[in-house]
Design goal:
binds fe (iii) ion; single chain; binds zinc ion; 269 residues; alpha/beta
């Protein structure tokens, strides 16, 4: 089985339930060896305030994670899910460097000022140019890769969340430059099982995008994007099957923002 879950939230983001200790216990119950807390990073400029901790809460986040880091049973990493948006560039480089993160997920949740994956704005998908929105999204992901700020791209095809999708030929064409730049940046991508809990009912990324990632030798990590303790390691058997089907034989672990390669288990074991 897969023994690491590298995307776990806490109630500080204002839309997750369960204390960090409960996520830890759930991971231990499921036999994981390592988890990484990656709550939504605070912003210095008031960006998207309802989905993250405020800056003053960040020391508390460090304490919460730190208190779980002495266990023999389960190793706990310190991470963060940082938003790539225009204001990030001025603040995040120094902020990320000044904290002892084991890994940093870079995510795009906004196209211009539209929080496109926010359930509250879900209906706006009905009236937008879906293909155009996806195209803008992948341009941002390419810029995210070029920023060299992050280790892992979060939920690579997040715009599919509410199941509004362009044709595969369009996705292939618009995602190719982004994937080339992710590869050039030496970043990995998540197999993020949260998509299975959303209307799209599919892991992020799709089999098509994972195939394109594999062709470019972009490494993978496993991620539940848990917002409640029972979601830890959610459907990791399906994520493993997806990885194997795309041709992957390895996945990555992180520590202090350095990677190690680990063999994927066989489907049957
Ligand atoms: Zn969240
Ligand atoms: Fe996210
Ligand atoms: Fe997340
Ligand atoms: Zn997320």
């Amino acid at each position: 089985m897969i023994l690491t879950d590298y995307h776990i939230h806490t109630p500080l983001c204002q839309h997750a339930t369960g204390e960090p200790r409960a996520y830890f216990a759930s991971a231990a119950d499921r036999g994981l060896q390592q988890i990484c807390f990656t709550d939504h990073a605070p912003a210095h400029d008031g960006f998207d305030p309802t989905n993250r901790m405020v800056m003053e809460q960040f020391p508390g986040y460090l304490d919460n994670v730190g208190q779980l880091q002495n266990s023999e049973q389960l190793s706990v990493l310190l991470g963060i899910e940082a938003d790539f948006y225009p204001g990030a560039i001025t603040f995040q480089p120094d902020w990320i460097e000044s904290h002892p993160f084991d890994l940093v997920i870079g995510s795009v949740h906004y196209i211009d000022d539209w929080g496109f994956d926010n359930p509250a704005t879900k209906d706006s998908w009905k009236s937008v140019d879906v293909t155009g929105a996806w195209r803008k999204y992948f341009k941002l992901v390419a810029e995210l890769a070029d920023s060299a700020l992050y280790d892992i791209v979060g939920h690579l095809d997040l715009p599919k969340k509410f199941d509004y999708r362009p044709a595969d030929t369009d996705i292939r064409e618009m995602a190719t430059p982004a994937l080339d730049r992710i590869a050039a940046a030496g970043m990995s991508i998540e197999l993020n099982t949260a998509g299975l809990r959303k209307p799209c009912n599919e892991i992020y990324p799709s089999p098509l995008l994972l195939e394109l990632a594999f062709e470019r030798e972009i490494p993978i990590v496993f991620a539940s994007d848990a917002h409640s303790p029972e979601e830890v390691a959610y459907a990791f058997d399906k994520a493993l099957d997806l990885a194997l089907a795309a041709g992957y034989t390895n996945y990555l672990t992180y520590s202090e923002r350095k990677t190690q390669v680990r063999p994927l288990p066989n489907r049957s074991s």
